[in-house]
Design brief:
alpha+beta, GCC-box Binding Domain, 3-stranded antiparallel β-sheet
């Protein structure tokens, strides 16, 4: 399966922009962490979480759902493990 440049751009690694999280798809929002993902040219809100890691796992689950084999995960060794 081939991907277009736009599709590949949606699933690139974590970009260093100086905001709050070391994980892709996670930002700090007050005392909680928000997870979101971009897929099919849309932003999908994944929820608010008490820990940064919980939000990162939520992102990974969505990345597998939307990007399948092309998913860039925060925890690549846990590709099939759901942790919360």
């Amino acid at each position: 399966m081939r991907r277009t440049n736009a599709e590949n751009g949606q699933n690139r690694g974590k970009q260093s922009n100086g905001i709050s999280s070391k994980y892709k798809g996670v930002t700090r929002n007050g005392n909680n962490f928000m997870a979101k993902i971009k897929a099919n040219r849309e932003d999908y809100y994944l929820g608010m979480f008490q820990t940064e890691k919980q939000a990162a796992y939520a992102y990974d689950e969505a990345a597998i759902k939307y990007h399948k084999a092309f998913a860039h995960l925060n925890f690549p060794r846990h590709k099939n493990v759901r942790k919360r």
